[in-house]
Design brief:
- It contains eleven helices and 20 strands.
- By secondary structure, the protein is α/β, with parallel strands linked by helices.
- A hairpin with a 2-residue loop joins β13 and β14.
- The N and C termini lie far apart (53 Å).
Amino acid sequence: MNRLSLFPNATKIQNNQLTIAGQALNQLAEQYGAPLYIYDRATLDASAQEYQGALAAFYPGPASVTYAGKAFLCKALAAWTQLHNLTVDCTGEGEIGIAVAGGAPREKILVHGVNKSMADLKSAFQHAGTIVVDNLTELIRIQLLLTNYQASAPNIWLRLLPGVAVTTHHAHTQTGQHDSKFGMTRDEILEAAKFCKENKLPLNGIHFHQGSNFRDPEPLIPAIDMALDLAKEIGFNGEWHFCPGGGWGVAYHEDELPNPPVESYVRGIAEAVIEGCKSRGLDLPVLHLEPGRSLVARAGVALYRVGAIKHRGDKTWILIDGGMADNPRFALYGARYSCLPVEGLDREISAKVSIAGPYCESGDILIEDLPMPELKEGELIAIPVSGAYHLSMSSNYNGARRPEVLMVEEGKVDVMLRRETVDDLLRRDI
């Protein structure tokens, strides 16, 4: 069944029901409630090892892999990143705080952000090894901090706006185009480099990012060339750092299978950097990759319970106990998903259904027109590829309480995040 291959590595059908790492999903829902998010440790480990193995195979210089905190970050995930020697990409003071609480050391914290506040920068100065500077104003803020607090600055990379986007399914997941809010133009990069030199700021890298959930590395090549031209003009030599972004894609729906191979992504970047540095007389940089969702998305599964079923003409609505409050991706940019029933997987496909949540929005939809067997009220469904950009984008809309989150491995279940309560909703009230 193609749909099953969307699920984590440790997923099996046993006794006509879904299990992950030997854990029956219906029993997990019975014990921990629904909605429920489940992460498979084996899939996470394999993803990290695949990227690191590909870098070792194709890039002769020093290299590292960065985990995108924005995809999903909690203390347990931050701790997991350090078991694989990953850098944690943090956007702002909040994510920095989670990474630190999870045990990420200074040298493994990288700070992004298009408009970092002074509080964000102070936190970066205290906890981070690198700040990726997005604009000239940010450099002035960094200089003010150095002057006023007599602190030592983290390493500084400059974020280039290459003017070239990768192909993604929606404009909201593109970041490298000319009119993007992210990064600096070539002239701004050179001005920023001059500012760093004049003010003795520790500039030692360049970064760009072109989009998220793309499958073809070819559009990265002209951006890599542009960035390497700038690196030569700035005068980087010896140990310097280069990050051509990330955001490699994953399949969310059986129509998108197979998953694009990690090897082609890593090899394409490595060869372009090696050849580009050789032709320009540049020392090979420390190469940093930001795989984004492809490290974590397929490790996660969301479980929901069917509450009601409505037939409206040719349309069948399956109404479940979660939706846009824990996964707003359909509402934001029309993301496609698939799913399976947790039990009775031998049932024949009978009709197309649309799956929607309990919230007071017409956009509270997770899946449209998916062929499924006949479902009954009270049964569980499992939506795969739920590990990235669900919980990190979740909200308390309509008083929703964020779901429990588990990490599973053979013979072991750990709670990473407990289910929110009404008391949690009231905690900020005065």
